[in-house]
Specification:
Blueprint (H helix, E strand, L loop, with lengths): L22 H15 L1 H4 L3 E6 L15 H10 L3 E6 L6 H8 L2 H9 L1 H10 L23 H11 L1 H11 L6 E3 L6 E3 L2 E3 L4 H12 L9 H8 L3 E2 L3 H11 L1 H6 L22 E7 L11 E7 L5 E6 L5 H16 L4 E4 L3 H4 L1 H10 L2 E4 L9 H21 L7 H9 L10 H6 L20 H30 L12 E5 L19 E11 L3 E5 L10 E3 L3 E3 L25 E11 L4 E9 L8 E4 H7 L8
Parallel strand pairs: 1-2, 5-6, 7-10, 10-11
Antiparallel strand pairs: 3-4, 4-5, 7-8, 8-9, 12-13, 12-16, 13-14, 14-15, 17-18, 18-19
Protein name: Integrase catalytic domain-containing protein
Organism: Malus baccata (Siberian crab apple)
GO molecular function: aspartic-type endopeptidase activity; DNA binding; DNA-directed DNA polymerase activity; endonuclease activity; metal ion binding; RNA-directed DNA polymerase activity
């Protein structure tokens, strides 16, 4: 204050360690805080400090001071100031501000606009009393939707004509309400053909906090007892179908889109192969923690190659030469998923040098390489069985698993992979006496091998037709045109597992995005925004959802940082609060965490220990 006039205000929240200060130190800390921030006003000037803490006026004459007080006393000695006692009842302004529940008032003020909007959307009008000085001290509720319907009826020529017909006895199902003269249809308000009014009613029954985006049938039965207009059920269904929130968050209750598209039957053995990796297996003594699965599409024979997840691309290329090319020659093409190893420049250049064509599955549609996925499923079953029955390392019996797989009957080709590959099944201890010598010389071997290939091709074609027929029973066609807009299915992933939080409740779809090209029968190329530049832009039709446009839609910019695999991470921003939770035998420290892209109301309580391990940056300075 200067000349009894306030020239500046200052305040701040207490830091975590300051909350443990005794009252005397807190009052002194306030003085030190004021001297620091207003040093440019006070340094070199004679000033008075007024406080309602009486003991501080004896600070300069006290003898027993703690280290903190001594440090602050040295700072006070730089100023020409005196501390004078000012009773709290006389120190009205400062005392009132210090006791004001600022956090709650700020929250009330921030929610004032949303509260008013919510009250108005429910059909009530908020009026402040002129005599009241409090914002929400006194208000009255007045329905406004009813008044608006009544006012619209008075101005609508069609409604007035219906009233005339009713008065003439030609519309016996219509009534006039005695209280206000409103036209009623079987005790329901007759809504005029006013698009704005009907939209307001539909918004209230669908988008308000008391509706929570119901489906068309539920919404119709909610509105029907109170309102009526011709074609109401149809308009409600159209309204729900255009709701952009419903399009983004609700699952489609339809068969998956996209008919099965079988790959063409290969012409010869090991010319067309598929491959994939299985990682995160228990690490063996040799350091192996994964298996490279390579399968021939014609004979269904496979190789299971033990690998390490940290293998370089150069090492994988060496394994490919020694385990595949060495025994079967260079393949014509390879089908795989979009594993970074397979899409890397090194692997692409390596296969190009061999003359092999690389074919990748569409983004996030592993069914393209279904053969590898199914083989991996069988392999994992054998791994589990081996570990349970024999108990040793999975790597010790991997060669026998490969033999068992290749020597077992395969329904698609009508024989075992070994029989398709070599002309007969391999010997096993199961039937020593039944296995005799077979001597095939010259043309006989060629003829039998050729016959086997023709049988395999025929069996594969029959199997593909059967599988397509079965798969198509559970799918349906969906065709888009270039220029259409679609939503893209999103796969949420949470860095911290928290039940019921925003990560679990995030939208199912993002977009909409424009279709720029049709790829084959069931794939489309999308025009993705820059933040999704790392995502492959060709998607199977099952990953897309038709966007129903509406002029009222305002598409917000994508708020999430999407990973290349269409997942996203939830990142903490800061810690808002701390508390202790007492369990039976111990006390657990909890922190209230504010997450990126979420409001303070969505902050969650997490254990301090876990957050320190995962996000130590949050605790710098604490």
């Amino acid at each position: 204050m200067q000349h009894s006039r306030v020239i500046a205000y200052a305040s701040r929240q207490l830091k975590i360690h300051e909350r443990n200060y005794p009252t005397h130190d807190l009052e002194l800390a306030a003085i030190v805080f004021a001297l620091k921030i207003w040093r440019h006003y006070l340094y070199g000037e004679k000033c008075k400090i007024f406080t309602d803490h009486k003991s501080l006026q004896y600070l300069f004459t006290q003898h027993d001071l703690n280290l903190r007080q001594r440090r602050w006393l040295e700072l006070l000695s730089d100023y020409d100031c005196t501390i004078e006692y000012h009773p709290g009842r006389a120190n009205v302004v400062a005392d009132a501000l210090s006791r004001k529940p600022q956090g709650r008032l700020n929250a009330l003020y921030a929610s004032r606009v949303s509260l008013l909007a919510e009250l108005r959307s429910t059909g009530v009008e908020l009026k402040l009393e002129e005599q009241s000085e409090a914002f929400l001290a006194n208000f009255q509720v007045k329905p406004i939707l009813i008044d608006r319907v009544l006012a619209a009826q008075l101005l609508d020529e069609e409604i007035q004509e219906l009233i005339s017909l009713r008065n003439e006895g030609k519309k016996k199902d219509l009534k006039i309400r005695d209280s206000d003269g409103m036209l009623m249809q079987e005790n329901r308000m007759y809504v005029p053909n006013n698009e704005e009014l009907k939209k307001e009613i539909l918004d209230e029954a669908h988008c308000s906090a008391y509706a929570m985006h119901p489906g068309g049938t539920k919404m119709y039965h909610t509105i029907r007892p109170f309102y009526y207009w011709p074609g109401m059920k149809r308009e409600i269904a159209e309204y729900v179908s255009r709701c952009i929130v419903c399009q983004q968050v609700k699952a489609e209750r339809k068969k998956p889109f996209g008919r099965l598209q079988p790959l063409p039957v290969p012409q010869w053995k090991w010319e067309n192969i598929t491959m994939d990796f299985v990682y995160k297996l228990p690490r063996t003594q040799n350091g192996f923690d994964g298996i490279w699965v390579v399968v021939d599409r014609l004979t269904k024979s496979a190789h299971f190659i033990p690998v390490r997840e940290k293998y370089s691309l150069n090492k994988l290329a060496q394994l490919f030469i020694s385990k595949i090319v060495k025994y079967h020659g260079v393949p014509v093409n390879i089908i795989s998923d979009r594993d970074p190893r397979f899409t890397s420049k090194f692997w692409t250049a390596f296969q190009e040098a061999l003359g092999t064509r690389l074919l990748y599955s569409t983004a996030y549609h592993p069914q393209t390489d279904g053969q590898s996925e199914r083989t991996i499923q069988t392999l994992e079953d054998m791994l589990r069985s081996s570990v349970m029955q024999f108990g040793d390392s999975w790597h010790d019996r991997l060669d026998l698993m490969e033999f068992a797989y290749n020597n077992s009957f395969h329904s698609s080709i009508g024989m075992s992979p070994f029989e398709a590959l070599y002309g007969k099944a391999c010997r096993t201890p199961l039937c020593w006496s039944e296995v005799g010598e077979r001597i095939l010389e010259g043309p006989e071997i060629v003829d039998e091998t050729t016959q086997n290939i023709q049988v395999i091709k025929s069996n594969l074609k029959v199997a593909q037709d059967r599988q397509k027929s079965l798969a198509d029973r559970h799918t349906t066609d969906r065709m888009y045109n270039v220029g259409d807009y679609v939503f893209l299915k999103l796969s949420p992933w949470r860095g911290v597992v928290r039940f019921g939080k925003k990560g679990k409740l995030s939208p199912r779809y993002i977009g909409p995005y424009k279709i720029t090209e049709r790829i084959g029968e069931v794939a489309y190329r999308l025009e993705l925004p820059p933040e999704l530049s790392k995502v492959h832009n060709v998607f199977h039709v099952s990953m897309l959802r038709h966007y129903v446009s509406d002029p009222s839609h305002v598409i917000p910019p994508q708020p999430l940082e999407i990973n290349p695999d269409l997942t996203y991470d939830e990142e903490p921003v800061t810690i808002l609060d701390w508390k202790d939770k007492t369990l039976r035998n111990k006390t657990v420290r909890l922190v209230k965490v504010l997450w990126r892209n979420h409001s303070a109301e969505e902050a969650t309580w997490e254990t301090e220990e876990r957050m320190r391990d995962m996000y130590p940056r949050l605790f710098y300075g604490f």
